């Protein structure tokens, strides 16, 4: 026979309130941990890659997202909150990134890109672009993106490796998997 304390069966509103408050606090802690990890990751990447901007493009809906975190060399490069053109990122691109596609463009002016994509990158002052998916068990959580704005930038295998390692770190962090 097992003996239980009264508090385990306490149906009082106070106990429901405390459980609800604890759930809210737990979610808040996870979000704070996630945001700190993302900030630290993109700051380290921007410094290491010596680029003008590194951002996290987070998907909040099916292939709809926005820049939710950024590290910039100068405020003039800020694109925080940018959503991008809805008609550029579609199922075709999503499938490529879901399959682990890494896209490294040394100079967007010399690359064969859809006009929509090239015009969008120009509007963000992008000259060179490196994109790595952040894949969690549920699917494509976001894109980790490095931009060089001032001039073309040749991405080394080490640059790509660093971005992939950072994306994997994000994708496997409990604070992201649980968010």
Q: CATH homologous superfamily, by name? A: GAF domain
CATH class descriptor: Alpha Beta
Q: What's the overall average pLDDT, rounded?
A: 88
CATH topology: Beta-Lactamase
Which CATH architecture would you pick?
2-Layer Sandwich
Task: Report on the biggest sheet.
Answer: 5 strands, antiparallel
Percentage beta strand: 15-25%
Organism: Tolypothrix tenuis PCC 7101
Pfam family, one: GAF
Protein name: Putative Sensor with GAF domain protein
InterPro entries: GAF, GAF-like_dom_sf, Phyto_chromo_attachment
Please give the structural blueprint.
Layout: H1 13-49, E1 53-61, E2 64-72, H2 91-98, E3 103-105, H3 115-123, E4 128-136, E5 139-148, H4 157-172, H5 174-177
Antiparallel strand pairs: 1-2, 1-5, 3-4, 4-5
Helix pairs in contact: 1-4
Organism: Tolypothrix tenuis PCC 7101
Domain Phytochrome chromophore attachment site: 33-172
InterPro entries: GAF, GAF-like_dom_sf, Phyto_chromo_attachment
């Amino acid at each position: 026979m097992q003996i239980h304390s009264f508090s385990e069966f306490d149906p009082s509103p106070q106990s429901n309130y405390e459980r609800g408050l604890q759930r809210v606090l737990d979610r808040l802690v996870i979000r704070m941990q996630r945001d700190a990890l993302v900030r630290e990751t993109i700051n380290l990447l921007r410094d290491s890659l010596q680029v003008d901007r590194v951002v996290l493009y987070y998907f909040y809906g099916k292939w709809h997202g926005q820049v939710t975190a950024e590290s910039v060399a100068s405020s003039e490069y800020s694109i925080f909150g940018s959503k991008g053109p809805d008609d550029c990122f579609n199922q075709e691109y999503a499938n490529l990134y879901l399959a682990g596609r890494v896209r490294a463009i040394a100079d967007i002016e010399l690359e064969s890109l859809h006009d929509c994509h090239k015009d969008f990158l120009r509007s963000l002052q992008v000259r060179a672009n490196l994109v790595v998916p952040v894949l969690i068990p549920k699917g494509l959580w976001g894109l980790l993106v490095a931009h060089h704005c001032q001039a073309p930038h040749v991405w080394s295998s080490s640059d790509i490796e660093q971005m992939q390692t950072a994306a994997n770190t994000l994708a496997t962090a409990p604070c992201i998997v649980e968010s």
